[in-house]
Recover the amino acids of this structure.
């Protein structure tokens, strides 16, 4: 069958570009249920714990010692091999495309799949997707390290469960199960026909004379399209730490988002750099196969309980009879405003058995935003005390235990959850190398160098994370006046409306980009909100016969000022060195959205008056 052919029914192009799986060795599981209750419950908060001046000073010192230490390099030039797709066979040969479509979506992850479902449902069929990977899944395509699982409960996280007739096997499904689920969605909804895999968009520029976007890819395509939707994720581009000598290491090495299953880890001396959410899940699995495991840590994560379990027969039976069960559950999930409560995912509340997830404190008067932040800091402190007490309760060596304790506001860095991670450090062949506060600075041919000592390893794994919120800028989108989004934001500061539009960039939608609110602690809520918004706009334009839409400059100025202010008010909650705040250096309002439900107020106002838009300008 040809890679590109015409569908006789619709006259539209149909694609066969899904790549074959590279190897059957690529398989794994996520969290296992842990039965030991002492590992699945947090110790109570130590009595009398208050976030007083002494504790605040300790947090400050912890932060200041790390200021400026985060330094990364992108995987270009001699490091570009770290980006290779190790999960699929090479790209399917196909002709370069120079035709036109109505809607071009970048990305075939959750957002792309959900958009396709909504678009075709609304009668938009001339839709094309470009995806860098060889198959669907996005995050779940690239991240296949051992132990990978979702920390948002899968019953609320996986989109379209009712439409798929699917019930996840575990409360926190493994990444491998989620990837298979994405593939099933793509098959069921005819997504594969629409997608150009192994196709990276390299340039997107507005052609004012044609009122179309011209999209160029690394496969020689130069396509025109009326609309571009950027749905390519928030943590997409992996990064390496800047470490002297990184290029001369003689052993095997890879980044966690390109896990090389051809490297046999059994019996090897393995080093892993980084202890964020990825490493926390991978380390217990690595410890099961390595002869020796060296964990190079700069900053400890907060390790909360996971309490994994299998989906019960009772749940399966109940949900099979309950129409809209997952949608209702996701809506309840979206109402939870505290991160830890969301991640604990109380079944009684989420299933609708009880009306609320906690007893709410009644305040005698309405608190100011600053007072609310102070209250949150106090309760965050108590949670962190419990997290630190858990380290002492589990990790036997006191020096290792001390190094594993985080001192920053809960949620300032991405909280993590695991019931096997801390016990791993009691194993004789697992060693924590505390590189605080500056991190690993040097690597040589044999391994990692710290404090003048070389730690030889056979395999070195970089769990050093991803660029945050660069979704829109790395696509090199050039707007009406020839300026790129990156250039615009560098000169004026990040400016969008709802995170979805940017003035000067007509007919462009950015899904879950900077300043994009409307979500919750569940990413699926955000992509649903953004997908629904895009669909509303496309239908509005179809009804009005409008060709282009652009947000007005004054409207985005107002919205950007609001984002800045919301970030400033809540900043004390993120007073540590974290990618969330650009390692302490991002301009307020330039990254994630912190205005809570106010995003919806802006959205509703815009949708009801249409005042913020110029149609056919
Ligand atoms: P990350 O959170 O950015 O972690 C990078 C790690 O590398 C940090 O521990 C960092 O230390 C460390 N590091 C960087 N340079 C170093 C150096 N020179 N020496 C020593 N350590 C160094 O990346 P990630 O763990 O891949 O996670 C990224 C995000 O993906 C998560 O925050 C989460 O949003 C998502 N994720 C989700 C799940 C899930 O749902 N279960 C799982 C995995 C990932 P510092 O902290 O000191 O900078």
């Amino acid at each position: 069958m040809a890679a590109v052919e015409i569908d006789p029914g619709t006259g539209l192009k149909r694609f066969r570009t899904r790549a074959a799986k590279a190897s059957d060795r690529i398989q794994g599981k996520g969290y296992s249920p842990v039965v030991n209750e002492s590992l699945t419950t947090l110790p109570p908060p130590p009595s009398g714990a208050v976030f007083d001046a002494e504790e605040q000073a300790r947090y400050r010192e912890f932060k200041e010692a790390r200021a400026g230490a985060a330094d990364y390099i992108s995987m270009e030039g001699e490091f570009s091999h770290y980006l290779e797709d190790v999960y699929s066979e090479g790209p399917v040969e196909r002709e370069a495309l120079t035709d036109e479509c109505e809607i071009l979506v970048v990305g075939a992850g959750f957002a792309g799949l959900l958009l396709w479902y909504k678009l075709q449902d609304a009668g938009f069929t001339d839709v094309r997707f470009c995806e860098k990977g060889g198959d669907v899944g996005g995050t779940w395509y690239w991240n296949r390290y051992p132990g990978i699982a979702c920390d948002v409960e899968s019953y609320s996280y996986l989109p379209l469960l009712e439409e798929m007739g699917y019930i996840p096997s575990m409360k926190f499904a493994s990444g491998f199960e989620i990837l298979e689920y994405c593939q099933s969605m793509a098959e069921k909804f005819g997504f594969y026909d629409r997608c150009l895999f192994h196709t990276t968009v390299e340039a997107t520029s507005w052609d004012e004379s044609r009122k179309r976007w011209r999209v160029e890819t690394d496969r020689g395509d130069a396509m025109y399209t009326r609309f571009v939707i950027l749905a390519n994720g928030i943590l997409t581009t992996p990064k390496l730490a800047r470490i002297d000598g990184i290029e001369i290491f003689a052993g095997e090495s890879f980044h966690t988002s390109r896990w090389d299953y051809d490297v046999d880890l059994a019996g090897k001396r393995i080093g892993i750099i980084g202890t964020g959410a990825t490493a926390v899940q991978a380390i217990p699995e690595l410890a099961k196969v390595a002869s020796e495991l060296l964990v190079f840590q700069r900053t400890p994560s907060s390790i909360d309980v996971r309490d994994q379990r299998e989906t019960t027969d009772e749940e399966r039976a109940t949900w099979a009879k309950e129409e809209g069960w997952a949608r209702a559950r996701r809506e309840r999930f979206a109402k939870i405003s505290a991160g830890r409560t969301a991640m604990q995912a109380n079944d009684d509340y989420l299933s609708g058995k009880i009306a609320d997830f906690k007893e709410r404190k009644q305040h005698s008067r309405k608190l100011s935003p600053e007072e609310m932040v102070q209250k949150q800091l106090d309760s965050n402190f108590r949670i962190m005390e419990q997290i630190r007490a858990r380290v002492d309760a589990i990790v036997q060596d006191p020096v290792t235990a001390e190094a594993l304790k985080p001192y920053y506001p809960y949620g300032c860095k991405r909280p993590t959850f695991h019931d096997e991670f801390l016990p791993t450090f009691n194993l004789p062949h697992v060693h924590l190398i505390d590189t605080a506060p500056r991190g690993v600075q040097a690597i040589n041919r044999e391994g990692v160098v710290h404090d003048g000592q070389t730690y030889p390893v056979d395999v070195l794994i970089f769990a050093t994370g991803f660029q945050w919120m660069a979704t829109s800028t790395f696509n090199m989108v050039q707007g009406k006046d020839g300026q790129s989004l990156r250039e615009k934001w560098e000169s004026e500061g990040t400016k969008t409306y709802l995170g979805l539009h940017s003035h000067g960039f007509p007919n462009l939608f950015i899904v879950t980009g900077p300043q994009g609110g409307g979500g919750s602690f569940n990413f699926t809520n955000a992509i649903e909100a953004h997908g629904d918004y895009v669909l509303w706009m496309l239908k509005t334009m179809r009804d009005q016969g409008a060709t282009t839409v652009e947000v007005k400059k004054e409207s985005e100025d107002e919205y950007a000022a609001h984002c800045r202010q919301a970030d400033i008010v809540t900043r004390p909650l993120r007073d540590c060195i974290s990618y969330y705040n650009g390692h302490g250096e991002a301009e307020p309002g330039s990254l994630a959205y912190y205005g809570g439900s106010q995003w919806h107020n802006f959205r509703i106002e815009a949708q009801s008056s249409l005042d913020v838009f110029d149609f056919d300008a």
User: Anything to note?
Assistant: The mean pLDDT is 95. The two ends are 44 Å apart (CA to CA). Residues 66, 70, 149-151, 235, 241, 243, 256, 273-279, 281, 296, 298-299, 414, 435, 439-440, 463-466, 579 surround NAP (CB under 6 Å).
